Amino acid sequence: MSAGPESAAQEESFISHLVELRDRLLHSLIAVAVVMGCLCLYPGPGAIYDILAAPLTAALPEGTKMVAIGVITPFMVPLKVTAMVAFVVSLPFILYQVWAFIAPGLYAHEKRLGVPLIVSSTLLFVLGMSFCYFFVFGQVFSFIAGFAPKSITPAPDIEAYLSFVITMFLAFGLAFEVPVALVVMVKMGVVSVEKLKEWRSYFIVGAFVVAAVVTPPDVVSQLALAIPMCILYELGIVASYLVSRPVKKAAAASDTQDTAAPAADLDAEMDKAEKEFSNLSGK
Fold first, then answer.
1. Cα gap 191→183, rounded to integer Å
2. Which residues, 6+ apart, have CB-to-CB distance to 56 below 8 Å?
3. What is the pLDDT of residues 147-157, one digit of tens each?
4. Are residues 196 and 254 in contact, defined by beta-carbon separation less than 8 angstroms?
5. pLDDT value at 109 more than 80
6. What is each CA distance from 237 to 140, 206, 250, in whole angstroms?
7. Is the pTM for the entire model greater than 0.90?
C-alpha cells in the first residue's frame, strides 16, 4: 500500500525535472534567437561574414573575391555564421541555465568547484578561437597563397570556408581546454600530478599527432596547434598542483586530528589512574 504514494512522488519529481529542463532549454533558445535577431539588424549577416572572411580575403590576390557555388549559398552561409556568433555571445547565459539546472543536486564542495571550471572553460574556449582567428588564419592563408603556383587564381567557396573555419575553431577551442581537463582529472582522483609529469613526453607526441590530423597539411597550422597544447599542458600541471595542495593539507590535518584524539584520551585515562592510585596510597 505504501508503494503507491512513493511511486507517485517519484514520478511527480521526475516530471518536475523534465518541466524544468524544458524551461531551461526554451530560455537558452530564446536568448540565442534574441541575440541573433539583434545581430541581423546590426551589423547584419553580410557584415559578420565579411569580418569572418577578412583573414582569407587579405591573403588573396588583389581584386580576387570568394565565390558561392550553390543557389541559396549567399543567403544561408551568412545566416549560419550569424547563428554561430549568436551562440558564442549567448554562451554565458546558456551555461548559467545548465548550472541552475544541475546545481541543486550537487554537494557544497562540488558547487565551489563548478563555477570556476565553467568560467575558466568558457574563457579558454573563446581564447582558443581568438588565437586561431587573429594569428593562425593569417599565417596559414599567407603560407598557402605564397605556395600556390602563379598560373592559377584562387577563388575559395564561401561554404567550404565556413566548414574550414568551424573545424579550426573547434580544434583550437577544445585544445585550449587542456588545463581544465587536467584539473578535473586530478580533483576526481583519476590521475595524480606526478603521473602527469611522467606522461609529459607522451602528451607532446600526441599533441603533434592530433595537430597533424586536425589541421590542414601545412607546418604552420600544425605547429600553431601543437605548441600551445604543450604549453597549456604545463600550465595544467601547475594548476592541478595548486588545486590539489589544499586537499592534501586538509587530509593531513584530519589525519593529525584523528591520531591526536586517541592520544589525548589515553593521557586523560593515565592521569585519572594516577589520581586514583595516589588516593589509595594516601589512605
1. 10
2. 66, 137, 141, 156, 161
3. 878 788 788 89
4. no
5. no
6. 30, 17, 20
7. no
C-alpha cell read off for 25: 532549454
**Which helix or strand (DSSP H or E) is residue 144 part of?**
helix 137-147
CA 91 to CA 28: how far, in whole Å? 9
* 206 burial type by CB count under 10 A (0-12 exposed, 13-18 middle, 19+ buried): middle
Are the beta carbons of 193 and 240 closer than 8 angstroms? Answer: yes
Which pLDDT belongs to residue 252? 47
Backbone φ, ψ for residue 67 (5° rounding): -120, 160
Mean pLDDT of the chain: 83
Looking at residue 185, its amino acid is M
**Cα 253–chain centre separation:** 33
Who's near 162: CB < 8 A, 6+ residues apart? 52, 77, 80, 81
Cell 595542495, located at residue? 245
Whether 175 contacts 225, CB under 8 Å: yes
- Burial zone of 267 (CB within 10 Å; 0-12 exposed, 13-18 middle, 19+ buried): exposed
Instruction: Report the alpha-carbon distance of residue 123 to residue 88 in Å, rounded.
Output: 11
